[in-house]
Specification:
The protein has about 140 residues and is mostly beta strands. It has one domain: Beta Barrel (Lipocalin). The chain contains 1 helix and 9 strands. The strands form 2 sheets. It has a 6-stranded antiparallel β-sheet, with no helix packed on it. The termini are far apart.
Length: about 140
């Protein structure tokens, strides 16, 4: 077995982001997830065309607010048959419920580039509490 020695990990500092109202860039934003299937394999999926906003308080991130809308018909997975099953009436029923929404109730910073965002997820006409683990990638003006 080879062993690396003298290797120093590099940690990039995330630049400070100006507080204010940010709108989700629906062309570049994706919601990605993974789900275990019977503890044997994993399915990976993605929603695109996401819309929403972030009201960022950079001095007090816990005062920030997020609202997202996911077009459920944009769902794709690593299996075409799984995608079709999820679109159908027994699961997401995208014809009757075309969107899912998430509205934050609390933001907890987990460091300079990560946070947990608790909120209310509305899916299939039902609203329940949920928490998202988010990772800050960057910001800029389009």
């Amino acid at each position: 077995m080879a062993r690396a020695s003298g290797v120093t990990p590099v940690v990039a500092e995330v630049p400070a982001v100006e507080g204010g109202l940010y709108h989700v860039d629906d062309l570049r934003t994706q919601v990605v997830f993974s789900v275990s299937c019977l503890s044997v394999s994993w399915y990976h999926g993605m929603f695109s065309g996401v819309s929403g906003s972030l009201q960022l308080d950079s001095a007090h991130p816990e005062q920030s607010h997020v609202a997202l809308q996911l077009p459920l018909h944009s769902l794709t997975t690593t299996s075409g048959s799984v995608t079709q099953t999820l679109w159908d009436e027994g699961w997401l029923d995208v014809r009757k419920y075309p969107d899912a929404t998430f509205v934050s109730t609390q933001v907890v910073s987990d460091g300079p580039s990560q946070a947990r965002v608790a909120g209310r997820l509305t899916l299939h006409g039902v609203t329940r509490p949920g928490t998202l683990r988010v990772h800050f990638v960057g910001a800029g003006k389009n």
